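Key result, reporting period 2: structure in, sequence out.
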């Protein structure tokens, strides 16, 4: 834990109650470390921040054009969606275009996020299309159909699809495939652990879009879709929607489970990756806003738009202020 630093403190009655440790790495597209807090090379599982990179083999092979997927469908490839009707209907449309049913999806199913958030009533039935990762999995299946590869084993780490994903993720992050630590994500897909600085580099490249000499067309298609339809990347009441809307077309961002987030700036060709080691989402979002502020990426309007996600006074159910949540770190220049 010596390589992690306190990012967010929560006090009650003036006494420290909780402290959330983590690390931050800020890089450019070449991987140059521009700023950091804690260990910028902290090894972390990427979780759902990986989704845009997992779509690279499909994009590189011209998959969207072949199946008639537009920006809305591409956004869903990168999504951790709410399972709202707008998400489920589009996933169903994508499955129809590749000639498969939702039973081919191996992500499992769960209560849609929008129900947990109180956005709407639970649907009469829940299936794999409601899973937050169903867009990504549909993209996986589309690649298999496109290349004549088996769909029954598409999640196996040795499957040609997952090997292609591993190669493309490594290239985007500036690593060798063997440098990626393998794990299995909550949706049963292979996931990788890599240093925060390399995740930031991949997002700087993703945000730079067509300016990237290696993945230009693919990165441009992915990042533009995410920025254009953040409601499909996440959904009502979700952080990715709020952050990308506040970014006004300049921020490409994706949150992942257990306290990881990456944010890239289109205009700057820079990005940062952040990990809160205890996985606390409230602390993660507060720290993310603090990084944006310290980097000078926020204006007054954006600061106000992101107020619900910032470090703020803590109130109880009656609305009485009982404590304070505040950022306690300062970014240091890259070493």
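The corresponding designed sequence is given below.
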């Amino acid at each position: 834990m010596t390589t992690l630093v306190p990012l967010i403190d929560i006090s009650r009655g003036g006494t420290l109650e909780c402290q959330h440790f983590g690390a931050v790495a800020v890089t450019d597209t070449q991987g140059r470390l521009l700023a950091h807090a804690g260990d910028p090379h902290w090894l972390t599982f990427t979780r759902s921040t990986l989704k845009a990179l997992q779509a690279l083999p499909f994009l590189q092979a011209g998959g969207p054009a072949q199946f008639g997927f537009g920006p809305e469908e591409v956004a869903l490839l990168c999504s951790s969606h709410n399972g709202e009707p707008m998400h489920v209907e589009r996933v169903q449309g994508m499955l129809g275009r590749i000639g498969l049913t939702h039973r081919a999806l191996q992500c499992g199913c769960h209560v849609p996020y929008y129900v947990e958030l109180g956005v709407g009533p639970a649907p009469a039935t829940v299936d794999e299309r409601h899973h937050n990762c169903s867009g990504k999995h549909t993209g996986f299946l589309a690649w298999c159909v496109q290349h004549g590869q088996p769909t029954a084993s598409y999640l196996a780490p040795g499957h040609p699809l997952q090997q292609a994903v591993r190669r493309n993720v490594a290239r985007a992050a500036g690593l060798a495939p063997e440098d990626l630590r393998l794990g299995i994500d909550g949706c049963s897909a292979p996931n990788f652990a890599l240093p925060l600085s390399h995740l930031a580099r991949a997002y700087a490249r993703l945000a730079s879009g067509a300016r990237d000499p290696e993945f230009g067309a693919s990165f441009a298609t992915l990042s533009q879709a995410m920025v254009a339809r953040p409601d499909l990347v996440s959904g009502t009441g979700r952080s990715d929607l709020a952050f990308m809307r506040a970014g006004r077309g300049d921020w490409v961002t994706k949150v992942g489970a257990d306290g990881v987030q990456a944010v890239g700036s289109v205009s700057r060709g820079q990005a940062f990756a952040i990990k809160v080691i205890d996985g606390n989402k409230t602390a993660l979002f507060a720290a993310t806003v603090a990084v944006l502020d310290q980097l000078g990426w926020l204006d007054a309007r954006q600061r106000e738009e992101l107020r619900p996600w910032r470090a703020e006074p803590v109130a109880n159910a009656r609305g009485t202020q009982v404590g304070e949540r505040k950022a306690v770190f300062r970014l240091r220049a890259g070493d």
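Residues 5-333 form a domain with the Beta-lactamase fold (CATH 3.40.710). The chain has one domain: 5-333. This case is discussed further under Risks and Mitigation.
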